[in-house]
Structure formats: C-alpha cells, structure tokens
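Case study 2.
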Amino acid sequence: MAVAGPDGAGPDAAGPDAGRARGPWAAHRRRAEALRERHLFAAEVLALYLALVDVWEDGWDAAREEQPEPRQLARWAAERTAPPVAKATEAAGPRTLAAATRDLLGAGRLEELLAAWLAGGELAPAERYLARASLHAPLVALADVGAACAGDPSPRGERRCPDCGGPPQLSFRSHAEDPLVSGGRRLACARCGQSWSYSASSCPCCGETSGARRTVYSERRAGPVVGRGGEDRDNTGGAGAETPMFPHLRIDACASCERYLLDVDLSRDPRAVPEVDELAALPLDLHAAGCGLSKITPNLMGF
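Prediction:
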C-alpha cells in the first residue's frame, strides 16, 4: 500500500518508488529548488542539499525497515549512509569538501567520528559535515518511532533537545490565529530534527532574559539593521523601499554570550521550511559574523 507523504500526497503508483515511504523531505525539496532559483549566492549550497535529500530518503527508508539499535547507530550509519553521502558530496559539493569527505571515508575512523557527533563532541568542519549528513536520516527515522539516541548521555534541559540532548540549530515561530500576536516559539534540534517549545524572551544558548542584553537584527532595505521587534517599516518610513530579501528571518543575538541563531517567522512566509531557509540565509550569517557573533550551532554546511 502506498504511503502518503507529510503533505498528504502519495507516491506515483507508476513510479520506481511506488509503495515506498520516502521520508519527510518533500516540502524541503520543493523549497530548496525554489530558493536555489531565487538566491544565486546560495545555489551551490542548495544543490548539495538537494543531492543529500536523495540520500536521506533512501537512508530513512532503510532505517525504518531495519530499526538499528541506538547504541549501534554510528556503526550502522558508517556502513549504510556515509558512503552515499560521500558520493553525493563528490557529485554536487565544493571540491575541497568532496576531497575531505573522501579522505575521511578512507581513513578508517568513520564510526568513531559519528559516535563523537552523537555524544556532542567537537569535530573539525569536514568531520562535522560528514557525521551530520550521515546520521540525519536515521536519526529522523528513529525519532519518528521514539527511539532516537536512547541511552545517549548528552545533557537534557530546556535549552537542549528533550529527545536526544542535541543543541538548537534555529528557532521558528508558528502561525498564530490572532494576526497581531506572534505564534509560539520553538527550537529545532541540530541532531535529530525534533523541535520543542522555548521562551521567546530567553537566549537559547545561555538563558539570558534581560532585554538590554538581547538584540534582534531584522532586514530592511539594503541589509539587516538593529531592531527589537522586527518591524516591517523601512529605515526612512517612506514609500518605494526595496523589498527585504528575507522578510521572515531575523538574527536573534545575545550580548552576554555573543552567540546567535536565526529565527524563522512562518506567519510572514507560510511557504518557508526553517531548515532550508536557514541554509539559504548566508547574508544574515555574514552580517552576524561582522557584528562579532558566533552561531550557537553551525548548520550542516558549516555556516
């Protein structure tokens, strides 16, 4: 029996994947394709992301079928998903990343690297990329059945994922029934992809609650500027202002820890897919870096 996707559309019965579940990335694929055409500066990043989606769909299906034990997940991913991730990276990624990924695959330490990422260890950028890309599909698949990272010793808490202990990648706000009220804020896990509710007035890194220590950078006209509420007004208040490139994104920064993450307001763009839109927001990351800020968790591509 064909399994419907997350958007309610079942696979084409005549296609090669008829009867197979393909994971939760249908909307991600559509959004990445749209943003790749819209933002040429992010085309290479999104092309690699789309190549990885193909790998993740196969890995998600295999993980759901085989149900690897959480404590064996690093070994399973090293054998099953890392080789196709390396192949996709070589086909669609930057040469330096492809070469580094190929070297890591042949070095014989892959299971160790993946286990380190699962345990919250610090890895070099190429190591972190390969670990995240290789583990993403099985972690999402196991999270769907409540088995992601079972027994993982990573710390839990309101600023860490309650399912796997992973750090936040980004925050997003859901649709609100009242257009004058922002939707509830949620943090998205950088490891297993789950999300959890979190206060809109607290720093997701250090917990700072003082408004004087927290700043929101929202884009108006030529680029991001300092603001507290992400207002839609432009700098001059006059007519004819340029349309912001990322009207639904903000930099949520903290002066206490000098860290930030990107916040996605789905009420401003219901088509947004937080994981994909965050990857495409390179100018905002560059602006944050120019302000002396470091992202709480670099995304899959290292930004």
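Residues 168-295 form a domain with the FdhE-like fold fold (CATH 3.90.1670.10).
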